[in-house]
Write a structure and sequence with these properties.
The protein is mainly beta. The chain contains no helices and 4 strands. A two-stranded antiparallel sheet has the order 1-4.
């Protein structure tokens, strides 16, 4: 299973049209984004592009059903 990086979501500012890589393994030191720490595991980052500028709450417990966004 993934490592729980934190039990609270990370508030981040995203830019429209940018591509981001969300950490799905919990090992990244750049939470909630991937830093390549998943290498050698079964995990791969989730690549996503935002549709609007603004703040978002990204999951850090890695248990969300709406990745990369926190679903509480």
């Amino acid at each position: 299973p993934p490592i729980i990086a934190a039990k609270t979501p990370a508030k981040v500012t995203l830019k429209k049209g940018e591509t981001y890589n969300w950490c799905s393994c919990g090992r990244s030191s750049n939470q909630p984004f991937c830093d390549g720490s998943h290498r050698g595991t079964e995990f791969t980052p989730l690549q996503f592009e935002t549709e609007e500028d603004g703040d978002a709450f990204l999951c850090q417990c890695k248990r969300t059903a709406n990745a990369p966004y926190c679903d509480g």
